[in-house]
From TrEMBL:
GO biological process, any: hypoxanthine metabolic process
Enzyme nomenclature, EC number: 2.4.2.8
Provenance organism: Schistosoma rodhaini
Keywords: Cytoplasm, Glycosyltransferase, Magnesium, Metal-binding, Nucleotide-binding, Purine salvage, Transferase
EC class: transferase
One term under GO cellular component: cytosol
Cofactor(s) it depends on: Mg(2+)
The protein, known as: Hypoxanthine phosphoribosyltransferase
Top-rank taxon: Eukaryota
Length: 249
C-alpha cells in the first residue's frame, strides 16, 4: 500500500506528497514531524478552547474520507477470511466517535457489495493518563461474560496507539478468552521512542509525538467535542490540568 505524507511548515501552502515513487511503503497516511498543521482560525472550534490549541492537525473531512477507505479494507479482510460476523470492541472513552463513523462506513460497504456480515458492538474502558503523562499500568473495566467472546472475530476499535501498553494488555486478555481472531483498528498511531513495536492491523494516520485532542480524544476529559484532531498548546494544558497523585510509569 502506498503512503501519503503530510510534511511541510508553510500554512499558506499545505501540500500532500505522494511518496510512492520513492518506494516508501506504509499502511496509513503518515504525517511528518515538520508538518505544522492548519491555523485554527480557518475552522469552527468552541470558544471554550480559544487560545488553547496550537493548530489543527487533521481536519474532520480528512478523517471521514480516511475512515471510508479503512472500512473497505476491513471488509476486504473479513471477506477473504470468510468471516460470518464481527464483534467490534470499542475502547472508551476516546474511541466512541471513531467507532460510530467506522460502523457507518462498514455498513455502507457491506450494503454496496450485497454481502451479509453481521456486526455487534461491545465496550471496554481503559484509564492510564492524567494530564499528558501515563501514570499507571492500563486498567481495563467493562468486559462482559468471557464466554461471549469464544470463537468470535473481535475487531478492537482504538483511538490512538501511544506507548502500546494498553492495546497489548487488551489483546492478551482477549486471546485468553478463546476468540477466533483478534484484530485492531486504530485511528492514530503516534511515533514515540517509548512505543512498543506492536503495529495495529488497520491504521488511519501515523502522527508525530505531540499531544493531540479532539474527535473524542481528550485532555483530562476536555476537548472530546472538537470535530477536528488538534494539537493542544501549553495554555490549554495549564487551563485544563488536574492534580496528579500517581507516579508516571
Amino acid at each position: 500500500m502506498n503512503s501519503s505524507v503530510l510534511d511541510n511548515g508553510n500554512h499558506s501552502n499545505p501540500q500532500i506528497h505522494d511518496m510512492s515513487s520513492n518506494m516508501i511503503k506504509a499502511d496509513c497516511v503518515v504525517i511528518g514531524d515538520s508538518f505544522r498543521g492548519f491555523p485554527t482560525e480557518y475552522f469552527c472550534t468552541s470558544p471554550r478552547y480559544d487560545e488553547c490549541l496550537d493548530y489543527v492537525l487533521i481536519p474532520n473531512g480528512m478523517i471521514k474520507d480516511r475512515l471510508e477507505k479503512m472500512s473497505m479494507d476491513i471488509v476486504d479482510y473479513y471477506e477473504a477470511c470468510n468471516a460470518t460476523s464481527i464483534t467490534l470492541m470499542c475502547v472508551l472513552k476516546g474511541g466512541f466517535k471513531f467507532l460510530a463513523d467506522l460502523v457507518d462506513g462498514l455498513e455502507r460497504t457491506v450494503r454496496a457489495r450485497g454481502i451479509v456480515l453481521p456486526m455487534s458492538v461491545e465496550f471496554v474502558r481503559v484509564k492510564s493518563y492524567v494530564n499528558d503523562v501515563s501514570v499507571h499500568e492500563p486498567i481495563l473495566t467493562g468486559l462482559g461474560d468471557p464466554s461471549e467472546y469464544k470463537d468470535k472475530n473481535v475487531l478492537v476499535v482504538e483511538d490512538i496507539i501511544d506507548t502500546g501498553k494498553t492495546i497489548t494488555k487488551l489483546i492478551s486478555h482477549l486471546d485468553s478468552l478463546s476468540t477466533k481472531s483478534v484484530k485492531v483498528a486504530s485511528l492514530l498511531v503516534k511515533r514515540t521512542s517509548t512505543r512498543d513495536k506492536y503495529r495495529p492491523d488497520f491504521v488511519g494516520f501515523e502522527v508525530p509525538n505531540r499531544f493531540v485532542v479532539g474527535y473524542a480524544l481528550d485532555y483530562n476529559d476536555n476537548f472530546r467535542d472538537l470535530h477536528h484532531i488538534c494539537v493542544i498548546n501549553e495554555v490549554g494544558q495549564k487551563k485544563f490540568s488536574v492534580p496528579c497523585t500517581s507516579k508516571p510509569v
